Amino acid sequence: MATARERVLVAMSGGVDSGVAAARLVDSGYDVVGVTLHLWDYPDDPDAKGSHGRCCAPEDQYDARRTADALGFPHFTFDRRELFRERVVEPFVEAYLVGETPSPCTACNRTVKLGELLTIAKRLGATRIATGHYAREGRDASGEARIREGHDKRKDQSYFLYATPHSLVDMLIFPLGESEKPEVRAEAVARSLPGATKGESQELCFVGQGAHAYADLVEARAPEGRVRPGPIVDESGRVVGAHTGVHRYTVGQRRGLGVSLGKPAFVTRIDASTGTVVLGEETGLYASEVTLADVHLAAGVTLPVDCRVRVRYRHEGALATVHPSPDGDPKRARVVFHKPVRAAVRGQVAVLYGGPQGDAVLGGGPIVDVVGAPS
């Protein structure tokens, strides 16, 4: 229970989760202030916007304000569209052009949302910041504040928060951390919150609908001359097909390859410098180690460390030892897996977990090199 009406800023997307998070904060006696970040605009074509409930959609700003009005606290919207374009959308496009598979939601939290919410909280006099993420607060044995995986493992979003600034971790509140999604949905309906029956956000907020939506966005925003056709080859280098751009492929992809080798085939490597897409067997997707760049470590964490490492959002994690970079660069690290891991892909983020329960976020960073894949 809050004391002396402690002010908390709650990040509101206009969806069910942030609405219930805000309602629980009000129930707990906090002095709540709602904040929505306006990150993206859509064309007038409804089909281009995607399904209802898309995170950060302009219409969701209205739902966030309606929720704040219904619960009786002030709500503010801050325009961060230029920052979002510069730090999330443009790097997303560039990553696909160089054969990587980006993780834009981690980039958004790392480079836009968390820092901006901290700055706004200070301006509004809030001492705590709450979000509707399915994650939990915790502390390690020495008392350091930690972000932990949520109780609902199917919805856990701690992965996206690996780079939370040290100064913010101790301020965070996750009202949904101990809940499961059906419970939250039922609560929203029972409370008659605006948007209680809104659909789930399944796609990226800046990408439209359709099987080729990612590729279409990359082509529309790529600099002139960056999208070009190239060969599809097998592991021996034999040309087995052609493509219209490497951005249409990701390592680990099996469907939509446009060729048939007479046996199951996967994209095992993409060489953007030559425009070559390499196909091979599933065994070629396993990695023994990866190199991370732009590494963020939680307060008090030092390398080397034995931990569990998730190499993508839906990965349950694999045991590994994370070493300092051999060249001494503090922003790089080498992750050596105890057993080979499938589909560790350049551009995705590896997040480290440990602590007393093994579920505390220790840090992470984007994967920039993979050892164990076919050369």
| Biggest sheet details | 6 strands, antiparallel, barrel
Spatial strand order of the main sheet: 12-16-15-14-17-18
SS content category: alpha/beta
* SS strand fraction: 25-35%
CATH class of the domain at 7-132 and 175-190: Alpha Beta
Low-pLDDT segments, ≥5 res: 44-53
- The value of Rg in angstroms is 22 Å
Q: What helical percentage do the residues reach?
A: 10-25%
In short:
The protein contains 8 helices and 18 strands. It is α/β, with parallel strands linked by helices and 375 residues long. Among the domains are: 7-132 and 175-190, HUPs (Rossmann fold); 228-280, SH3 type barrels (Roll).
Walk me through this protein's architecture.
By secondary structure, the chain is an alpha/beta fold. Among the domains are: 7-132 and 175-190, Rossmann fold (3-Layer(aba) Sandwich), CATH 3.40.50.620; 228-280, Adenine nucleotide alpha hydrolases-like domains (SH3 type barrels). It has helices at residues 16-27, 46-49, 58-71, 81-97, 104-124, 166-169, 181-190, 213-221; strands at residues 7-11, 31-38, 75-79, 128-130, 135-139, 145-149, 172-173, 230-233, 239-243, 266-271, 276-280, 286-292, 296-297, 305-310, 318-324, 333-342, 349-354, 360-371. The strands form 4 sheets. A 6-stranded antiparallel β-barrel has the order 12-16-15-14-17-18. A 5-stranded parallel beta sheet has the order 3-2-1-4-7, with helices on both faces. The chain starts with 6 loop residues before the first strand and ends with a strand.
